[in-house]
C-alpha cells in the first residue's frame, strides 16, 4: 500500500546578519538547531539569507549602489564551499532537511546568482536552483539562471522543489516543477517595503503561494526575510531617510499553505519568528480527483510545453584546425 510521508515543517521569518557571511551562517545553523528541537524535519529559509538582499538597488542610484555590490560580492559564497559545508553539517547533526537562499558567486567577478540550496537530512547538498530572472531593480545585482536548475528532488520526506520570490508568478516554471512530481514547494522571499503604495506585499506573497498549492494540490512553505534596524543603519549614511523607505507594514509573510490553498495555522506578518505545521502528503490525493492538471484534467494533445534544461555555457572551446 502506498504510504506518503508525514512530517513537521518550519518556515523561518528572519533577517540575516547583514553583509556578514560568517555570522549569518552561524545564525542559520542556530535556527536549524532550534527548529529541529521543536520537531521540524524541514526548515525553509528566506531568499538570499546568506548574507543579505541588495536593498540599495531600490533606494540609491546605480552609481551609489555600486560600492555596495562589491561588499555583497565579498560576502557571497561558492557552491559548494566551506559555508555550505557548515550548513550541511548542521542539517546532518539535527536530522533536518534545509532549503536556504544564498548569494552565489559565479565564475566572473561580475557574476552573482540568487540561489536556493536544497540539503537533505544526511547533510548532502542534493541540488541548487538559480533564480531564472532577477526582478526589476535586482537586475543591477544578479545574473539569471538556466533551465538546468528547474528540478524536483526526492527526499525522505517527499519530493521538494523551490522558486525564489517573483519567479513564483512564472506559471511555466511552476508547471515544470509540478510535472516532476513536486509535493513540497519552498517559496522564499524578502521583505520589500519599497513596492508601489497600493501594493500589499504580504498579501501578494500569500496569493502566489495559495495559487500554486491550489493548482498543484501540494504544500507550499513560504519563508520571508525581515528588515532590521541594523540593515537600515548600514545604509543610513547614503540614504538619510532610510527608515521612511524601509519600514512599511505588511511587507513580509511567512506561513504554510495546504493543498486546498488555505493557510495552515497562523502565518507571520512582518515579525521575526518560525511558523510550524504538520504536513501529511496523503492530503494531496483527494483534491487531485477533481483537478489534476498534471494528468486527467489537462489536454496534452493541445498543449505542448518544452523546457530547455541544458546548462548555460559562457564559452565553448573548439579545436578544428586541419593538420
SSE map:
Layout: E1 6-13, H1 21-37, E2 42-44, H2 56-59, H3 62-74, H4 82-93, E3 97-105, E4 112-119, E5 125-130, E6 153-155, E7 158-164, H5 171-178, E8 184-189, H6 201-216, E9 219-224, H7 229-235, H8 242-246, E10 253-257, E11 263-269, E12 273-280, H9 285-290
Parallel strand pairs: 1-2, 2-3, 7-8, 8-9
Antiparallel strand pairs: 1-12, 3-4, 4-5, 6-7, 9-10, 10-11
GO molecular function: nitrilase activity
Active site: 47
Protein name: Carbon-nitrogen hydrolase family protein
Strand order of the largest sheet: 5-4-3-2-1-12
Amount of helix: 25-40%
- Distance from N terminus to C terminus (CA atoms, Å) equals 64 Å
Assigned CATH architecture: 4-Layer Sandwich
Task: Please report the first level of CATH classification, the CATH class.
Answer: Alpha Beta
Keywords: Hydrolase
GO molecular function, one term: nitrilase activity
Protein name: Carbon-nitrogen hydrolase family protein
InterPro entries: C-N_Hydrolase (IPR003010), C-N_Hydrolase_sf (IPR036526), Nitrilase/CN_hydratase_CS (IPR000132), Nitrilases_CHs (IPR044149)
Amino acid at each position: 500500500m502506498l504510504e506518503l510521508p508525514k512530517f513537521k515543517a518550519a518556515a523561518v521569518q528572519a533577517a540575516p546578519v547583514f553583509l556578514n557571511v560568517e555570522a549569518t551562517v552561524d545564525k542559520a545553523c542556530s535556527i536549524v538547531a532550534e527548529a529541529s528541537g521543536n520537531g521540524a524535519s524541514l526548515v525553509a529559509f528566506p531568499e538570499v539569507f546568506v548574507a543579505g538582499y541588495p536593498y540599495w538597488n531600490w533606494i540609491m542610484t546605480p552609481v551609489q549602489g555600486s560600492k555596495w555590490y562589491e561588499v555583497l560580492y565579498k560576502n557571497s559564497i561558492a557552491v559548494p564551499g566551506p559555508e555550505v559545508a557548515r550548513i550541511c553539517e548542521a542539517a546532518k547533526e539535527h536530522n533536518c532537511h534545509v532549503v536556504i537562499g544564498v548569494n552565489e558567486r559565479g565564475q566572473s567577478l561580475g557574476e552573482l546568482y540568487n540561489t536556493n540550496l536544497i540539503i537533505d537530512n544526511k547533510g548532502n547538498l542534493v541540488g541548487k536552483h538559480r533564480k531564472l530572472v532577477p526582478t526589476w531593480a535586482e537586475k543591477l545585482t544578479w545574473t539569471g539562471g538556466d533551465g538546468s536548475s528547474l528540478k524536483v528532488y526526492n527526499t525522505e520526506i517527499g519530493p521538494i522543489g523551490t522558486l525564489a520570490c517573483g519567479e513564483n508568478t512564472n506559471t511555466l516554471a511552476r508547471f515544470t516543477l509540478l510535472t516532476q512530481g513536486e509535493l513540497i514547494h519552498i517559496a522564499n522571499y524578502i521583505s520589500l517595503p519599497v513596492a508601489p503604495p497600493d501594493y500589499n506585499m504580504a498579501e501578494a506573497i500569500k496569493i502566489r503561494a495559495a495559487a500554486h498549492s491550489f493548482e498543484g494540490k501540494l504544500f507550499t512553505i513560504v519563508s520571508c526575510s525581515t528588515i532590521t534596524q541594523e540593515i537600515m543603519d548600514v545604509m543610513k549614511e547614503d540614504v538619510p531617510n532610510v527608515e521612511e523607505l524601509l519600514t512599511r507594514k505588511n511587507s513580509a509573510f511567512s506561513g504554510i499553505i495546504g493543498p486546498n490553498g488555505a493557510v495552515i495555522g497562523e502565518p507571520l506578518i512582518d515579525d521575526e519568528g518560525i511558523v510550524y505545521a504538520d504536513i501529511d502528503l496523503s492530503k494531496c490525493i483527494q483534491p487531485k480527483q477533481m483537478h489534476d492538471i498534471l494528468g486527467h484534467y489537462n489536454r496534452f494533445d493541445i498543449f505542448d510545453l518544452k523546457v530547455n534544461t541544458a546548462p548555460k555555457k559562457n564559452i565553448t572551446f573548439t579545436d578544428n584546425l586541419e593538420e
